[in-house]
Amino acid sequence: MKITYRQEGDYLLPNLLPTAMPSKPFGKYSRMYLKYLKENKRIEYTNLLTSGELLEHAADVGEQIAESVNALVEQIAKKEGITETLKEKNQMDWVASMCNIKYCAEEIVLGDFFYNEQKE
After folding, report:
1. What is the pTM of this model?
2. Cβ distance 29 to 62 under 8 Å?
3. Between vectors from CA 78 to CA 89 and to CA 95, what angle results, nearest 5°?
4. DSSP state of 12
5. Which segment of 15-19, 44-48, 79-83 scores lowest on mean pLDDT?
6. Which pLDDT value is given to residue 119?
7. In 10 A of CB 113, how many CB atoms?
8. Which of 53, 94, 107, 114 is most deeply packed, by most CB within 10 A?
9. pLDDT on residue 107
10. 51, containing H or E segment
11. How far is CA 106 from the centre of its chain?
12. What long-range pairs does 108-116 form, CB within 8 A, spacing at least 24?
């Protein structure tokens, strides 16, 4: 990686801003992970920032979290019997059930993810 510098008075300061946005979608879970890194893993955050890999790494982790949440939502909905038939018959019950399942799945996945991260 080539580092460029800018003149600030008598000093040369490195340009540490990332050059491009990540190639993957940068969503809710990516932003949550960035906040977690910044608040709890400052050294890792700084290393990723200075190497220019922070946004790509956060996008990767956010994508992994989203996939885990979606898979868990499908499993729980199947186990609870929430089907398209319920959606056709009573949309409000289906929406309420799916929202509840999604919130529960997020709590499980995010709790496991961040708890396991802190143990390392």
Report:
1. 0.74
2. yes
3. 40
4. E
5. 15-19
6. 52
7. 19
8. 94
9. 94
10. helix 42-51
11. 11
12. 108/72, 109/65, 109/68, 109/69, 109/72, 110/32, 110/65, 113/65, 113/68, 114/36
- In three-state form (DSSP H/G/I as H, E/B as E, the rest C), the secondary structure along 54-118 is HHHHHHHHHHHHHHHHHHHHHHHHHHHCCCHHHHHHCHHHHHHHHHHHHHHHHHHHHHHHHHHHH
Percent of the chain residues past pLDDT 70, beyond the cut: 91
Residues 98, 65: contact at Cβ < 8 Å?
no
Give the tokens for residue 68.
């885990």
Q: What is the dihedral of CA 31, 36, 41, 46, to 10 degrees?
A: 20
The end-to-end CA distance of the chain, in Å, is 28
Tokens for 78, please give them: 């199947």
In this structure, what token pair is assigned to residue 83?
């089907």
Alpha-carbon gap, residue 20 to 22, rounded angstroms: 6
